[in-house]
């Protein structure tokens, strides 16, 4: 079992739930795939890309449920990150976790490790 995570604004997730699928945030659409992180990678992703942003949630997904559309590709420092080439069915999301800002302005993540 390989859990992966997507940090995004709650409003984007609510729209995805209504549509039954998540097609990506602006950066995902620009890059052509949905960016995910592992539990070990997510804190740095939160600090680099989501500092100071309120109203965030974290989606927890079992990576194996996404099949061959999920690819592990090098990114930051050569570390392999999960990228989804396609839509994320809302039914694949196992948990939606809050990501409140800490005192340092970085979203606090409570993920399975």
Distance between the termini: 11 Å
Summarize model confidence as the mean pLDDT: 94
Structural class: alpha+beta
State the major sheet. 3 strands, antiparallel
Strand content: 25-35%
Count of the separate structural domains: 1
Query: Which CATH top level class fits?
Result: Alpha Beta
Q: Over the alpha carbons, how many angstroms does the gyration radius reach? A: 13 Å
The amount of helix comes to 10-25%
**Order of H and E elements:** EHEHEHEEEEE
Which stretches are low in confidence, meaning pLDDT under 50 for 5 or more residues running?
A: none
Order of strands in the sheet with the most strands?
1-4-8
Task: Output the CATH homologous superfamily.
Answer: Protein of unknown function DUF952
General shape: globular
What fold name stands as the CATH topology?
ADP-ribosylation fold
- Strands, count: 8
The DSSP helix count reads: 3
Q: Please give the CATH architecture.
A: Alpha-Beta Barrel
Pfam family, one: DUF952
Protein name: DUF952 domain-containing protein
Mind explaining what this structure looks like?
The chain has helices at 10-19, 26-31, 42-49; strands spanning 3-9, 21-22, 34-35, 56-62, 70-74, 80-84, 88-89, 93-98. With 113 residues, it is of the alpha+beta class. The protein has a single domain (3-98), classed as Alpha-Beta Barrel (ADP-ribosylation fold). The protein has a 3-stranded antiparallel β-sheet with strand order 1-4-8. A 3-stranded antiparallel β-sheet has the order 3-6-5. Strands 2-7 form a two-stranded antiparallel ribbon. Strand 5 (70-74) and strand 6 (80-84) form a beta hairpin.
